[in-house]
Amino acid sequence: MNAMTQSGLSTATPALQIEDLRKSFGKAEIMRGVNLSIGAGERHAVIGPNGAGKSTLFNLITGRFPPTSGTVRLHGHDLAGLAPFQINRMGLSRSFQITNIFPKMSVFENVRCSLLWAQGYRYSFWNMVNRSRALTHAAEEILEQINLTNRRDLPAGVLSYAEQRALEIGITIAGGANVIMLDEPTAGMSHSETDYIMDLIRRVTENKTLVMVEHDMGVVFGLADRISVLVYGEIIATGTPEEVRANPKVQEAYLGAVLEADH
Amino acid sequence: MTDTTLHSSQPRLITLGGALPWLIGSLFLLVMPQVFTSNSAITIMNQMAITIVFALSYNMLLGQGGMLSFGHAVYMGMGGFMCVHFMNYIEDYSLPIPLPVLPIFGGLFGMGVAMIIGSFSTRKAGTIFAMISLGVGELIAACSVIIVAFFGGEEGVSGDRTMGPPVFGIEFLHQIEVYYLTAFWLVLSALLMYLFSRTPVGRMANAVRDNPERAEFLGYSSRWVRFFSFVAAGFFAGIAGGLFAINYEIVTEENLNLVQSGSILLITFLGGVGFFFGPILGAIVFTLLQSVLSLQTEIWQLYLGLLFVATVMFFPGGLAGVIMMHTLPFRLGKARLLLRPYVKTLLPALIGLLGTAGGMEILYHLRHAALGENEMSLYWISFDSHSVLPIAICLLTAAGGFWLAKRNAPELADAWHEANTPNGGVA
Amino acid sequence: MELILVNLIDGLVTGLLLFMLSAGLTLIFSMMGVLNFAHASFYMLGAYFAYQISLFLGFWMGLLIAPVIVGLLGALVERYGLRRVHQYGHVPELIFTFGLALLIEELVQFIWGKDQMPYTVPEILQFSAFSIAGNAIPAYKVFMIFISVGIFIGLLFVLTRTRVGMVIQAALSYPRTVEALGHNVPLVFMGVFGVGTALAGVAGVIAGPVLSTFPGMAVVLGSIVFVTIVIGGLGSLSGALVASLLIGWITTFAKAYTLRMEDFLSWIGFHKPVDMSESLLRDVWTLTSPQVADILPYLLMVLILVFRPYGLFGKRDA
């Protein structure tokens, strides 16, 4: 239903627009001209076999690596040459496939740090973080959302895997970015944990643009409004879950096998 | 006492629990010279206070920001040189600048130098940062011998602190007056450094230390965060340098060379980089060890080296880390359980260490004493270092002590485990 | 012209000596990601051990045995020290090797005292090999060049022609991959650390007689070696070679030819102030190249880091 309301907006500036994006490492061309347009408020999943370049695509969009050629636009602004922190300030936030948190800091500190820039604290050295009730409150609200309130003061490094994944998502959404990119949020999780994370993602990305890489087809079809299939650095199909499911190219290349295995 | 409107909108600025350590610390600083009144004691306390400021500033880099510097003495030395020059300007031109404000100039100069160096050295943390700090440190130490106008060459620059306008009738002729000046700056700088660690940029320094890449995806440039920490550390190192200049009235190349930078790393690490009070402990213990051991033995630096390497290998949290390991047993009310095993293990270990040290002292005397000088004294006993009995006693004591400690170690390990387990936690 | 040749030879000797240290350091860094701060301390141990052995068995046995002992010590340090600290991360590793450097210096003073050791060039090499325009080139210098070049050829052979060498080389370029292939066994670590420190030991043995054997010799050379590998690019062997020779020649030439800053400043159009005592920049005007020879490497390093952060040949950061 979300897709319906959002598809009407597709004539407006897309949240994320990628044109002919290419990346080579040495002679190997990993990204071979990707074109993708993701509307504001859309929940978009990128799927594809291992080694298709999904994580590389994320790294190119978020400024972790510079692309060899092609453009990425966030709300119409060209991201060429911008560093990750600059892109983040423009309202794009991402999570990582391998849990990427601040292990020695407390769970609460993790979340609070991810709020600082967005709350306008910048590099200030004249005000105390623990004096701002608004900041503390916001951090506690995020903890509540990701169900980690009772882990508040533990070092993040000692949390269970699923809890660390939840914290990773919490850090990603805390800054209030309106484009959220999640790289395999449910990787390595049990069924119940996956359900919990899926529910969490649905809640925290309400009214936001979501781009995610995911292997679990249950999550993909449960969450995504539209799906893109990336195979060997090219997008072979984009569309609603039904369209993608029915696409013979996708069936052939990838999805059929997975679907059979899944069901 | 508390402003109610403030209370309702924000957490209180000052809580009793938060202010208590600072009050106790300040009181302690006030009372100390009444307890230890001798001049040498006050000299040691002055040195301690200066070292504390320097070590805290160093820990802004190493502990808070994860930057290992081999050249932090540069900023202290630069601040010191600037201050001693200021003292001379005051003397030469009769400037109405009172002595107590001088450290601020040292701080500002240290900060300025840190801004220049930091502009390229904070690009990366880790090994690259360490190497640049080493190179810059060596470069400036070498320059200090060449550029005589500012650094005064081999003999350094000296000044006279008593030439400024008196402050409330105090001319800083006496050590004790300098002590209170130093103590004031110590409390002020320590408080400011502590507060810095609570600011957004101070918190982000921790984040960048732990995971610089993730911090970048939260909107912060790791490089800028490091730069701010670096500049702040340079400021407080400069203040320490200013205090040094006031205290000793001379600053030389030795204040900014690699040896000085190395010892502050050692002091900070021994104290513990993980906690704010670690460097304070380190500075106090190190200064005491230095003043006591260097009178007793010629090879105290060897002991210090051994202690340092052992700390890095077995207690990377330093002294503060070891102390804080005990908070859980205390909170569980089980610290009592540790007392007996500690005595049973650590006492023999201590005796073993004393035996080993005795053996090393005798060996050193054997090898390096002047020919024919066979008599040495150790642990208040005089004996012939060339006879077999003393060294045999030392070796036997060492072996016996360590054997006993090793025998009782499992008991300690069990007690430690028990003390850290909540009641009913394990069936 | 002849003087240039003499200085070229002198610079070559210094450069090769530096390379013997920086090569080992680079190997260790590339394999293990740890910069061995105590590297120059092993060089010092090499000199002291060789001196001690030479008292009983002569110089040549010292040259043979001392590096082996140093290498074994290095391997032990890796096995029982570094490997333990490794779990805490790279910064503690660096702090550990720093502590080790302090400790070794103190131990050397404990055993041999603070004075310089009478460790000298063996009699058989105490003649001048040839002379260039009246400048005698001592045979020992020629010997040093031969020894170092010989060792590099050996090292090159091991690196390019043997299996172990292949693994090490692969580790230089693709550390992660090699690790993933299961090659990064602790034994290789220990071996590389041992060999690296043994190389430093050899350098110590042959440098001890000419650069004098005293407790401060590690500090004197230590920082320069770090500067060398930073200039060359961390982890690059060829970079280390180029930087070593560069530094060897720069310092030698700066000392041999007195270039005056005054001339240079006048040449670019500055006027010397009449009253020098009042000028803050008076020391800049009176600088001469021999005076600054020893800080040129540091200056070079800072410049390199500002304009080429990865060094001359470096590709990756720490």
Automatic annotation (TrEMBL), chain A:
Coiled coil: none annotated. Transmembrane segments: none annotated. Pfam families: ABC_tran (PF00005), BCA_ABC_TP_C (PF12399). The keyword DNA-binding does not apply. Keywords: ATP-binding, Nucleotide-binding, Transport. Residues 16-257 form the ABC transporter domain. CDD domains: ABC_Mj1267_LivG_branched. InterPro entries: AAA+_ATPase (IPR003593), ABC_AA/LPS_Transport (IPR051120), ABC_transporter-like_ATP-bd (IPR003439), BCA_ABC_TP_C (IPR032823), P-loop_NTPase (IPR027417). SMART domains: AAA (SM00382). GO terms for cellular component: plasma membrane. The keyword Zinc does not apply. It comes from the Bacteria. One of its GO terms (molecular function) is ATP hydrolysis activity. PROSITE patterns: ABC_TRANSPORTER_2. PANTHER family: ABC TRANSPORTER ATP-BINDING PROTEIN, CONSERVED COMPONENT OF ABC TRANSPORTER FOR NATURAL AMINO ACIDS-RELATED. This is ABC transporter domain-containing protein. It comes from Pseudodonghicola xiamenensis.
UniProtKB/TrEMBL annotation, chain B:
InterPro entries: ABC_transp_permease (IPR001851), LivM-like (IPR043428). It is a multi-pass membrane protein. Keywords: Cell membrane, Membrane, Transmembrane, Transmembrane helix. It is found in: Cell membrane. It comes from the Bacteria. Coiled coil: none annotated. One of its GO terms (molecular function) is branched-chain amino acid transmembrane transporter activity. Its main location: membrane. It comes from Pseudodonghicola xiamenensis. GO terms for cellular component: plasma membrane. This is Amino acid/amide ABC transporter membrane protein 2, HAAT family. CDD domains: TM_PBP1_LivM_like. The chain crosses the membrane at residues 12-32, 44-61, 73-90, 102-121, 128-152, 172-196, 224-246, 266-289, 301-325, 345-366, 387-405.
UniProtKB/TrEMBL annotation, chain C:
InterPro entries: ABC_transp_permease, BCAA_transport_permease. The keyword Nucleotide-binding does not apply. Pfam families: BPD_transp_2. Coiled coil: none annotated. One of its GO terms (molecular function) is transmembrane transporter activity. The chain crosses the membrane at residues 12-37, 49-73, 94-112, 139-160, 181-207, 213-232, 239-257, 295-313. Belongs to the binding-protein-dependent transport system permease family. LivHM subfamily. This is Branched-chain amino acid ABC transporter permease. It comes from Pseudodonghicola xiamenensis.
